[in-house]
Amino acid sequence: MRGYTKTMITFHFVSIFPEAFTSYLGESILKRAQAKKLVKFAFVNPRTFATGLHKKVDDRPFGGGPGMVMMLEPIYRAVDSIKRRVAKLGKKQKARVILFSTRGKVFAQADARRLAKYQHLVFICGRYEGVDERVAEHIVDEELSLGDFILSGGELPALVVAEAVARHIPGVLGKQESLEETNGSFPSYTRPPTWKPKGARGTGWAVPPVLISGDHKKVAEWRTKSR
What we know:
By secondary structure, the protein is of the alpha/beta class. About 30% of the residues lie in helices and about 20% in strands.
């Protein structure tokens, strides 16, 4: 895209399973975005900052209850190590620390646009029965959720948010018109114009005639009505 200002966002994933990210981030749009130096992905394992022989990152919850809770100190040290590296890059580097939580604000497209203004996004991916609440109280800038359902960890939400944010960096998409809020959510079709499954009755499944009419004005009107 001509005339855009090149911007890079570094996504820092704080996770005890960093290998869970590599396959998805190494494909398609995000792979090309890395090659263009528009995004960078970094991984910090809290276990690296855990103390003791076994490098524990979880412990039993105070007050009792099932499962284990991720400990405060390894996450604090992991995030602090990222903040120290960002600080060395200069005052103009803006960072935001996000925890994925069922109690967080539900992530929306407006949040993707907002977060795309930062140079560094730090995603804390919880596991087990959750994260020590002091992480939310003292370390993060905000909590986000993908919706009213439960996952085993924050890795999938982190991937979703990373892609949604990356799409708002000029140059990441082949055409800026590919952004959802630009083209809406109208039905899409491609070739062939008519297709019939083997053995099916009738004339087949056809594309709406207006889309193959060549009349761009009518196509635009149809898409507006179909949203």
